[in-house]
Design goal:
Chain lengths: ~260, ~70
């Protein structure tokens, strides 16, 4: 059964999007990416640091034929995000951009007003825009209206591994969205990812939970399995919750008779 | 000779008439995944040969780094 993720007219078999931060090395990143089955990875754009040697991250991902989704991480307002997006387009030749604007370094929560503003400009400029947002159903709608490709509501603050703290709001976004919903940030365990898919998420984005694991490659495999399990469960249809027991076996009736 | 500011902090002296592509080659930065802004204007890759660096310019070179 074909169950592809479609983003901006492109089809993907994997619904797990990975971040590239916090990996021990480019080699571990590449091995993890392979083990995760991910076909999309995100990365930031920064001024070249001429003093320190930086790990090359573009080449190892391209070798795996992974689609690059640059992000505007570090931008504190719409103007900086737009500039970062245009730099990334020039650097990588892609019009995909994950818009991330978080002025507050403690919680790294996205600024909704600057995000909406930046997305308007970038959509008009021909970008395929993927905004990272608070799990705000109203904002998700507004972004959908201006033509973003998908929305990326957060489960919890970036890197916090708290899971889907915003579950009820993500649920509303999932119910009303006409664009793919990618649950991003806060996913700390494979079970969090599975839950997102069981709820109907189209994709999830995971970074810290994999990269900061003692065995990133093994954790990548765990996430791959969890994403697939959650998605299959959603497609199959989950059991309806009930407050009382419902017998799973017709034997119960028979036993009742026998006990009389 | 001309003096430029490279990545906000380095003052570099270059020969008059140095093109952007010559400068990048010298810095070993003429490679994939790199973008350049001069005085905050992003420069198109196919024009690097034609852009002559002039005294007082701010040249910023960006690349892709790890991050979520």
């Amino acid at each position: 059964m074909s169950d592809k993720l479609v983003l901006a007219g492109r089809e993907f078999d994997s619904r797990l999007i990975i971040g590239t931060g916090k990996y021990a090395s480019a080699e571990v990143l590449q091995k993890s990416a392979l083990a995760s089955g991910a076909q999309i990875a995100t990365m930031a754009v920064k001024r070249v640091d001429v003093k320190t040697h930086q790990d090359e991250i573009v080449a190892p991902l391209k070798e795996l034929n992974i689609t690059l989704m640059p992000n505007t991480s570090g931008a504190k307002n719409a103007r900086e995000a737009i500039f970062a997006a245009r730099l990334a387009r020039e650097a990588l030749g892609t019009d995909w951009i994950k818009v991330e604007i978080h002025p507050d370094v403690r919680y790294l929560l996205p600024d909704p007003i600057e995000t909406l503003e930046a997305c308007k400009v970038l959509v008009e400029d021909g970008f395929k825009v993927f905004p990272y947002i608070q799990a705000d159903p109203v904002l998700a709608r507004r972004l959908e209206e201006i033509g973003v490709i998908a929305v990326m509501p957060l489960g919890a603050p970036i890197g916090s591994a708290q899971g889907l703290q915003t579950k009820a709001m993500i649920d509303i976004i999932l119910k009303q969205s006409h664009v793919p919903v990618i649950v991003d940030a806060g996913i700390g365990a494979p079970s969090d990812a599975a839950l997102a898919f069981e709820m109907g998420a189209d994709a999830v984005m995971v970074n810290t939970a994999i990269a900061a694991s003692a065995d990133a490659v093994l954790m990548s495999e765990a996430f791959k399995a969890a994403c697939e399990a959650g998605r299959k469960a959603y497609k199959a249809g989950l059991a309806i919750k009930s407050t009382s027991a419902k017998a799973t076996s017709p034997m119960e009736a028979f036993l009742k008779e026998a006990m009389k | 000779m001309a003096q430029i500011t490279f990545n906000q902090e380095h003052k570099l002296t270059i020969k008059d008439g140095t093109t952007l592509s010559e400068f990048l080659k010298e810095q070993q930065l003429l490679k994939e995944g790199v973008a350049v802004a001069i005085d905050e204007d992003i420069i198109k890759k196919d024009t690097y040969d034609n852009v002559i660096l002039k005294d007082g310019m701010n040249v910023d070179v960006y690349n892709m780094v790890s991050g979520g």
